[in-house]
């Protein structure tokens, strides 16, 4: 008897998990078509069911958003990991990850905005087609976990060519991830508005070189920026300001 009950319970759990996946996929398609402000009625219609059925599997829209976010960021992480693994060099790995990220957000801007418009303290973000992402997210969100995992991926190629500590590599990678995300979202918003002529491949190359030539160039120069050995004398006014001497300003009064 117990075995039969366990069997039925397992089958029900499997059915419930499969149905949740179907609803998440339907929600992604609905968001892709209608935008990040899509309603639960539209999501239910896309799934061929009623809103009450959707609420059997997800407590509210925030719960559905969380499930969609988990699926999307898992796909993005897998794609980035494959790109980094298959690249022939550290620089190629960085370029491949930047390219994959831009390709994915360009393919479905609506889904990207839906996922990155993370709610704070349980408050849903404003709806509407013009809504844009706000905060990165709280530590327990899929987006935050995704960013942490991507930092690890990005730190690896940097650490391969720079003689730095693990913490230094991670710090650079955290900045790089934020830079790529910021550049990508700037480009995506302007691309949707027709306000930029910069295409995806151009941005991929620019961002990759900005990231790579900056820190790697400095470190290969023994930790000094290119102008560290500039033989030109520092102007007296600049030298005084750098030393904290503000007397010249006061004397002009």
From TrEMBL:
Domain HTH tetR-type: 17-76
This protein's UniProt keywords: DNA-binding
Region Disordered: start-end pairs: 218-253
Gene Ontology molecular function: any one: DNA-binding transcription factor activity
DNA-binding region extent: 39-58
Cross-referenced InterPro entries: Homeodomain-like_sf (IPR009057), HTH-type_TetR-like_transc_reg (IPR050109), HTH_TetR (IPR001647), Tet_transcr_reg_TetR-rel_C_sf (IPR036271), TetR_C_32 (IPR045823)
Range of residues in the leader sequence: none
Keyword DNA-binding: yes
Keyword Transferase: no
Domain of life: Bacteria
Ranges in coiled-coil conformation: none
UniProt cross-references to Pfam families, sorted A to Z: TetR_C_32, TetR_N
Annotated protein name in UniProt: TetR/AcrR family transcriptional regulator
Protein species of origin: Xylanimonas oleitrophica
């Amino acid at each position: 008897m117990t075995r039969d009950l366990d069997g039925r319970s397992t089958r029900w759990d499997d059915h419930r998990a499969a149905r949740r996946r179907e609803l998440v996929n339907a929600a992604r398609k609905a968001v892709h078509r209608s935008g990040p402000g899509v309603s639960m009625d539209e999501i239910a219609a896309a799934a061929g069911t009623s809103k009450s059925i959707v609420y059997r599997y997800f407590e509210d829209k925030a719960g559905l958003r969380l499930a969609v976010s988990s699926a999307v960021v898992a796909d993005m992480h897998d794609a980035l990991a494959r790109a980094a693994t298959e690249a022939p060099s550290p620089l190629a790995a960085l370029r491949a990850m930047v390219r994959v990220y831009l390709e994915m957000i360009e393919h479905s801007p609506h889904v990207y905005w839906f996922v990155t418009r993370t709610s704070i303290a349980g408050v849903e973000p404003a709806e509407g087609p013009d809504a844009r992402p706000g905060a990165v997210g709280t530590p327990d969100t899929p987006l935050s976990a995704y960013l942490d995992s991507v930092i690890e991926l990005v730190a690896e190629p940097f650490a391969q060519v720079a003689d730095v500590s693990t913490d230094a590599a991670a710090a650079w990678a955290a900045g790089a991830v934020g830079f790529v995300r910021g550049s990508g979202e700037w480009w995506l918003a302007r691309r949707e508005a027709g306000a930029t002529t910069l295409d995806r491949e151009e941005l991929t190359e620019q961002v990759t070189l900005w990231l790579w030539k900056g820190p790697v160039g400095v470190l290969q120069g023994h930790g000094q920026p290119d102008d560290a050995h500039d033989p030109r004398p520092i102007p007296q006014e600049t030298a005084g300001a750098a030393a904290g001497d503000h007397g010249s300003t006061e004397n002009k009064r």
